[in-house]
Amino acid sequence: MPVRPARWRFCCACGLLGDRPQHGEGVDPIPVLSPTGQGLEQIGALMEEWCKITVPSCPDAVATRCLERGACLAFGAYELHENRRIGGVGLIKFSPEDKPLLAWKALDFGVLDLHWFNENSLVVASADGGIRALQVQDGASGWTVQQHLDGPAIALSVCLGAGASEGKIVTSFADGAIALATLDSPSWLWERTQAHAHEAWFACFGAQEYLIMSGGDDGYLRLWDSRLRPQEDPCVSSYQAHEALGVTRACFLDEHVFVSGGFDEKLRFWDTRMLGRSWQTLQMPGGPWRIEVRGTSLLVACMQGHAAIVDLLGPLPRLQVHLGQHMDHSLVYAASWLPGLGHNLKCVTASFYERILYVWRSAPADSVDRKSL
């Protein structure tokens, strides 16, 4: 069963799954986007490579947080070894003055997604099924498992709630299931075992605490009401959002507006009050895999297309920067903003097969010397 598409509908485990579609024409915009968040620095017309970091395994998930001086980046990784997915977690500390410092903890299971939930702990989606809460005490060598919730299959994604949903976790699985828990619950609080006919590539929280969104390899984007029991059919909306191809990621930008990505190599912008069609479509060569919001910009991991930054200011979203577009050998499943490192905007992209984390900064270059590790 595939875990990651390695190129256009090409999976690491099972090869080519389908033909490239013919792209249709975009649709006329309907609403004007009002993104949440403030204070994003202006991005120049150019992003340049600031440094690159070689890591011990194939990175496919990254998460960052601010430090008192600098930033801390956590990454998860996996690779196939004797028909098993093994991997680990790593920490990289960045400061304005010093070279990045890398610490690594090998694990007997692969990590397919991860997020910080406090300054010392991560929640990870594991290749052996379920999620784990990991705590670090000294570099990465002190990782301990605080909690383990078993799942029905390989855990493909994990999302932490914010605001009214704070403290909750929603996870998607390779058998098409999705499940809801809290950080301290001993078992799943809500499950939908057949949310999708094939892999449920992601699940995330909506603007309301009870709303869950999921997307799958069956081509459907679905909204769920977690107040309803699974036997009560909690699916409140279901539609084929990306030309009947797999839906890989989505996230809400405000109470009504959300963005989704899929194997049709497009970002689509939607309004929950009019779900008949997307009101804006952007071509994303390589295909969106992850989307991260910061203020008025999106950072999109685009697999073979490396990564892109989308500007949300103005009447319509637009592609602003294409990162690594000439890197023929990169395959990027993860990207994250990197805060706390000077005035210029920075972000990181994870190249899976190269085992390299690329750090980018906006031009003109700041006063920090280029670093490598």
Could you give a quick summary of the protein structure above?
With 373 residues, the protein is mainly beta. It has no helices and 31 strands. Strands 4-31-30-29 form a 4-stranded antiparallel β-sheet, with no helix packed on it.
3D structure, described in words:
With 373 residues, the protein is mainly beta. The protein has a single domain, classed as Methylamine Dehydrogenase, Chain H (7 Propeller), CATH 2.130.10.10. Helices cover 0% and strands 50% of the residues. The strands form eight sheets. The chain has a four-stranded antiparallel sheet with strand order 4-31-30-29, with no helix packed on it. A four-stranded antiparallel sheet has the order 5-6-7-8, with no helix packed on it. Strand 7 and strand 8 (101-107) form a beta hairpin. It starts with a strand and ends in an 11-residue tail after the last strand. The model is unreliable at 5-44 and 365-373 (pLDDT under 50).
Index terms:
4-stranded antiparallel β-sheet, globular
* Number of DSSP E strands: 31
CATH class membership: Mainly Beta
Helix content: under 10%
Characterize the largest beta sheet: strand count, sense, and whether it forms a barrel: 4 strands, antiparallel
